[in-house]
C-alpha cells in the first residue's frame, strides 16, 4: 500500500482550517447547512468505503448533493481536506483515561491506534502530516503522559511514543493488506489453507528445508492461517514494551524487570 496523499495541503490554509481560525471566504455561495465538518464527514465515509483513490472533491460534492464548486468555498482542495480528515479521525481516540501503570497505558494506546487504522484504513495511505491540529496535539499529549515521570528525558519520551506508534502502524498495515487480499480473492486464510495445504505437502521436499517445514506446519496447525493478525500484534507489542521496560529500569536504576510498570506474563498479558 503506497501513500496516495503525496501532495499535502498548503500549510497555512490547512492550519487555519484545522484550528478554525478563518471562516470560509463567502458562505453565501454555499448551500444552507453545508460546513467544513459536514464535508469532512462525507469525505471520511467515502474514503472508509472505497479508499483514497476514490476520494475527489467531485465525489464528496455528489455525496452531499451540492455542486463541486460549493466545496471550494469551505475547503481549498483535496490536500487540505485530507489534513482535516486525519485530524478529525484522531478525535475518536479516548485521551482522558490515564489510569494504570505505564505499561498498561501504552498497551491501551497501542490497541486504540490499531483499531483506528482498521476503522479508517485510508489513513495508512496518507503521508504522515507535519501539521499539528488540535486532535493530533491532544493525542500526542495523552501518549506522552503514559511515560511521563519515569525518569526518561523528553527526547526519550518522544522516541518511546514514536516506537510504539511505528510498530502499530506497521502491523496495522499488514492486517489491512491481509483483509484486502481476502476481499479481492474471495478466499479467507482458512479457506486458502485448506486448499493449499495438501498441494504444498505434495510439492515441497521437507528434507531440503526441515526447519521451515516444521515451523510452518506448527503455525498452520495453530492458526489455520498464513498470518494471524491478532496474535502477531499482541506478541510483538509485548516485545516492544519489554524493550521500553529495559530503558525505564536503566533510568530508574532498577534491576528487577516489572517493578515500575508491570511484567508481561507468558501468555502476553500484563500482570
From TrEMBL:
Q: Which residues cross the membrane?
A: none
Annotated GO molecular function terms are: DNA-binding transcription factor activity; transcription cis-regulatory region binding
Pfam family name, one: TetR_N
Region feature Disordered, mapped onto this chain: 1-31
Q: Which UniProt keywords apply?
A: DNA-binding, Transcription, Transcription regulation
HTH tetR-type domain: from which residue to which, for each copy? 33-93
The highest taxon in the source lineage is Bacteria
Query: What InterPro entries does the database record attribute to this sequence?
Result: Homeodomain-like_sf, HTH-type_TetR-like_transc_reg, HTH_TetR, Repressor_TetR_C, Tet_transcr_reg_TetR-rel_C_sf
Residue spans binding DNA: 56-75
Instruction: Indicate what this protein is called per its UniProt record.
Output: TetR/AcrR family transcriptional regulator
Record organism: Nocardiopsis eucommiae
